[in-house]
Amino acid sequence: MTRTPVNVTVTGAAGQIGYALLFRIASGHLLGPDVPVNLRLLEIPQGLKAAEGTAMELDDCAFPLLRNIEITDDANVGFAGANVALLVGARPRTKGMERGDLLSANGGIFKPQGKAINDNAADDIKVLVVGNPANTNALIAQAAAPDVPAERFTAMTRLDHNRAISQLAAKTGAAVSDIRKLTIWGNHSATQYPDIFHAEIAGKNAAELVNDEAWLADTFIPTVAKRGAAIIEARGASSAASAANAAIDHVYTWVNGTAAGDWTSMGIPSDGSYGVPEGLISSFPVTTKDGKYEIVQGLDINEFSRARIDASVQELTEERDAVRELGLI
Ligand code: NAD
Ligand code: LMR
Questions:
Q1: ipTM of the predicted structure?
Q2: Which of 201, 200, 183 is nearest to 273 (CA)?
Q3: Per-residue pLDDT tens digits for 204-246
């Protein structure tokens, strides 16, 4: 049976992450090995030529699943009929830029893109925001798309989730595939909280196995939370292949489901669970099935975790208040 191609829109397609992402989407890693895709590459005018070069390379791969590629700088065209949208293009923080300037510059990108999604995307649109500040950019886009169910707007904390698994595996000598139920809470920023209190390593509680609160507080959490800055320091550019890989993981899991006995982390609009104010786009433990996600309920949150979740949520609240004041939501 021939399946209908899925329309996948990627913004910032000519950037670093775009270059690492597009070939994996086209080869079937985003949705599955039997799902054909149409790619829509959305760039700013200065990025169009490089996007055309990338499209030439995509053609040269002769990917059996890639049906067509469209390149545009018009968001209404870029999101027309989109089933999946990966919002990667964003305004990076430059020297001397205040947080308010950064939020404002990104509001100028994510508000019109949210509106274009609202007006042009397919009814089943799923949106992942990668461009930073990812959670608040997702909130801006979601607020500009009143006709799209709010839960379709998500922000990426899967890179943090993967980083935390890798650090925990290195500490314990476990295989990454033995680690389950790890959680990233809060913002994709240095305040995020990677939580191992409910995580399992080969079925045993991870926090009990590690049994070292000092390592948790002074090594594990800061290493995961500041990993993005460490990569920038080492590479001279922010993470690209690992970020693209996490975007693939995020969408693949959302569409195809979490494994039994496991969950993942996604930045999603809060329903008020775990004391996170409703509407904030915050990272939670979620299970996914049939293209939908649900927050894992009923976890005991100890004092150590509560303080850290609250601190990250406080930062998200301040970001929301700042974009509200700027008239962006
Ligand atoms: P990059 O500068 O290499 O590429 C960004 C691209 O976006 C450029 O080609 C630019 O022309 C394009 N762009 C800018 N404004 C646009 C618009 N309005 N519409 C369409 N395209 C636009 O950056 P990168 O390394 O690819 O990173 C992209 C973003 O992802 C950054 O904000 C980065 O901080 C963020 N990031 C997030 C995570 C995460 O875990 N959430 C991880 C790594 C990077
Ligand atoms: C990362 O976590 O690698 C990025 O979000 C860092 C950044 O600021 O681009």
A1: 0.99
A2: 183
A3: 999 999 999 999 999 999 999 999 999 999 999 999 999 999 9
In degrees rounded to 5, what are phi and psi of residue 237?
-160, 155
Do 8 and 18 form a contact (C-beta atoms < 8 A)?
no
CA 64 centroid distance within chain: 27
Q: What is the pLDDT of residue 133?
A: 95
Set 29, 161, 188, 198: catalytic member: 188
Task: Kindly report the three-state secondary structure assignment for every residue of 37-73.
Answer: EEEEEECCHHHHHHHHHHHHHHHHCCCCCEEEEEEEC
Spacing, Cα 133 to ligand 1 middle (Å): 11
Instruction: Compute CA distances 184 → 9, 41, 265, 297, whole Å.
Output: 26, 30, 6, 15
Q: Which residues of 118-136 are buried (b: 16+ CB within 10 A; e: fewer)?
A: bebbbeebbbbbbbbbbbb
pLDDT tens track for 136-156: 999 999 999 999 999 999 999
Residue 106 contacts residue 70 (beta carbons within 8 Å):
no
For residue 282, the SS3 value is strand
Q: Look at residue 285 in the predicted model and tell me its pLDDT.
A: 99
Instruction: Round the average pLDDT of the chain to a whole number and report it.
Output: 97
Q: How much distance in Å is there from the Cα of 309 to the middle of ligand 1?
A: 27
> Is 188 considered catalytic here?
yes
Record the pTM.
0.98
Q: Is the CB of 107 under 6 A from ligand 2?
A: no
